[in-house]
Amino acid sequence: MMKFKFMIIALGASLSFGICQAQNNPETIKEDFKPSVTNQPGQEFPQVNSQGYARFRIKAPKADSIRVSLGLGGQGGTRLNKTADGFFTGTTAGAMDEGFHYYHLTIDGGVFNDPGAMNYFGSSRWESGIEIPAKDEDFYANKNVAHGNVQQILFPSKSTSSSRRAYVYTPPGYGKDKQRFPVLYLQHGWGEDETAWTNQGRANHIMDNLIAEGKIKPFIIVMTYGMTNETKWGHMKDFKIDGFQTLLTEELVPYVDNNFSTIKTSNGRAMAGLSMGGMETHTITLNKPELFGAYALLSGGTFNPAELKDKPKPRLIFISCGSKERPEGVKNAVAALKEAGYNAVSYVSDNTGHEFQTWRRSLRELAPLLFK
After folding, report:
1. End-to-end Cα distance, the chain
2. Between 44 and 8, residue with greater pLDDT
């Protein structure tokens, strides 16, 4: 089991940008700002430039102060300056990491979302989202290729006395013949839900593009809510895996196998998760190794040979993180697994932290390895 200290550091879904003030030297910032692709239709702000700076403009003529808080927990942020026309404007004090980030506004002490940006479920609430253009964004772009389908399903759960929701990605061509597909059960991070991997992670576009390029064997992805007992930030010790393990392994997996064209063996199943979802993956695959043939932890801890001993041997163990996290831990863990005879692969995302660009890249690297 991963150390609790690491679990607390790893939980969540975004890079904290830090405390900063909008006191930039204009000569150092390129004035090629464009609306973020995650803006509400027709909204000009927030904007991002080619260097990774973000600029905000909020109309609030009766407000006294506005601060933009970026990252998990909204620590620090960018203070906006009020102008005579009632608008608050400001630019981040430094460039942000490439990819997706959550943020919100603190207006005179109250927390609000930016009316110019679309909202995404993160930090246990709907947060504003901003996308910083990435040099490698082509792999998750919405291209003119054959697209799979993302559908919502409701499955019965006796253990929770409720109808539970999951999202299922089926690849292009699914259902046209009697072909059966392997399945990846893919979990979100703390404070997120089953919409995260497609809305924030672009998982369906990543899959579509890899399939179109002939780089992977098509497979189904199932994403469901990973919390069966609600846990507040800072109290992860109170989270119990038993309820979610029952829901996933005894209710969701059978439902998917009965309602989709799946390969109903461990070789046809894999489990992966980011951050808290990695913790869930780690525990469930150790408890139920007969169900899954491949395991992947994305910024979600590591495996070691001792805990895998005397259990069915997985075909693949994939462990990843960002270069700003703890890459040496990932590399050392994979080296130990290889030494013990496991097919283990490590991946470190360059110049990213605990954020979706790390996990998008991780899925891109993982997908071709899963079901060869």
Report:
1. 28
2. 44
Rounded Cα–Cα distance for residues 275 and 356 (Å) = 11
Mean pLDDT of the 186-212 span = 96
What per-residue confidence (pLDDT) applies to 72?
40
3, pLDDT greater than 60: no
Same domain, 188 and 320: yes
**Three-state secondary-structure class, residue 363:** helix
Give me the percent of the chain exceeding a pLDDT of 70.
88
Host H or E run for residue 90: strand 87-91
- Measure the CA–CA gap between 338 and 347, rounded to whole angstroms: 14
- For residue 157, give the amino acid letter: S
Residues whose CB falls within 8 Å of the CB of residue 297, separated by 6 or more in sequence, listed in order: 272, 273, 278, 281, 282, 303, 318, 319, 320
Owning domain of residue 189: 139-370
What are the E-state strand segments in 171-282? 183-187, 220-224, 269-274
Say whether both 185 and 260 belong to one domain.
yes
122 and 184 co-located in one domain? no
- Total of domains in the chain: 2
Alpha helices, H only, 15-115: none
- pTM, to two decimals: 0.90
User: What burial letters (b/e) apply to 272-297, b meaning 16+ CB within 10 Å?
Assistant: bbbbbbbbbbbbbbeebbebbbbbbb
What CATH number is attached to the domain comprising 338?
3.40.50.1820
What DSSP element (H or E) covers 332?
A: helix 327-339
106 shares a domain with 35: yes
